[in-house]
Amino acid sequence: MPEPDIIFSLFPKLRRRFPGFYADSRGEKRLYLNSGAGSLMVDSCLGVINSEGAGLNPMPGQITQPENQTREFQQQVRQLVADFLGAGRPEEISFHFSTTAALFNLAFALRSLFKPGKNLLVTNLDHFANISPWETIGAWQGVEIRRVRLTRDLLLDSSDLLSQLDHDTVLVAITGASNVLGTIVPLTDLVSEIKQRSPALVVVDAVHLAPHAPIDVREIGCDFLAFSGYKIFGPMVGLLYSRPGINEGIVPYRVETNRVEPPYCWEQGMLPNLQLAGLKGALEYLLELGRAVSSGDSLAPARKIFRRAMEAIRHYEQDLSLYFLERFKKIASPRLKLYGIDSPGRITSRTPTFALEIAGLAPSDLKRMFWEKGRIIIADGNHYSAVVVRQMQKTALNRVSLAHYDGPDSLDQFFDCLEHIIKH
What we know:
Elements: H1 6-15, E1 31-32, H2 43-51, H3 65-85, E2 93-96, H4 99-109, E3 119-123, H5 132-141, E4 144-148, H6 158-164, E5 169-175, H7 187-197, E6 201-205, H8 217-220, E7 224-228, E8 238-242, H9 273-293, H10 302-331, E9 336-339, E10 353-358, H11 363-374, E11 376-377, E12 379-381, H12 386-391, E13 397-401, H13 408-423
Helix pairs in contact: 2-9, 3-9, 3-10, 4-5, 9-10, 10-13, 11-13
């Protein structure tokens, strides 16, 4: 574990690694509090695109130097992602246009499992990227689709999930964290209970969890896990982990001439080398952070260094979330409401993502006011988690989503603007 205050001492340096923090591409100042929709890019992401990505050969190979260079580069990025996730081998990682595309590809590949008489489970806490693929392909194939509800305080109802499992359950799709409420799902314990009760495959959408906490797919025990490069300070690219040994009943999208073994069977066409270069730069930034928070053991394996980095980020963001809740409660306006976990004693069960509303003010209007009065970017809408929002009997909510490049000064600026809006 890093020293408790180490990331606070690093914070000013970390912020300077994100060129978009202080100003947009035209040099105009603004405050970006919408990292849940896509994080800011770290400087090394752009640097590796320029230094390595532009010189890569389109097609990897094993004869000419450019082909070899490209093949080795792609393998290196697979290994970095495997280390970030705690996977066993780089071949467990495949690249996709986006996480949504990866999960639609996966749903299609598993279509032969979705037979009449079988069932699959999706949850009301999930982003629709981990609902629509299963509902779409499942409905085509005639499988029964079961929905897992939320509790009254908007947590995933684990008891409801476990009660719906049986020996005909072929798949359970769950999220690692809600991208609208910030709620973290206790994956390791939940997946263990699922596996004890059912032969179902477990698919985890870790898009919102990945920038906020360490992930270890072997500890979790899932069969598949997906996340996105543009949420971990890099470019748009989808990543899919597939547990080795899962072959029966899986037929991915694949042209006949593509290799039949994973990870290549999961990928369609040429890989996007520039995106992979940017992803490499983003992951190397996290390795730098991990070495900085534990400089005495900088030669440790990459997966251990990644874990230290993400533990440090988690620790820092929990303190940031506590500060958010403290300032929120000081406003004490009856018009202002926060959804999700708001107890400081449960801060370890959430990411720094906050859904809120001001009574009588449309979310789109509040978003506009923050922009016009404070040059602050927040989000409005259902955030692709429409079932969560519907359960609150809403059509849209505002969302403030932070990352480790934010600080108490970011929140002071936000709350000063919020108090002004409420008052005037």
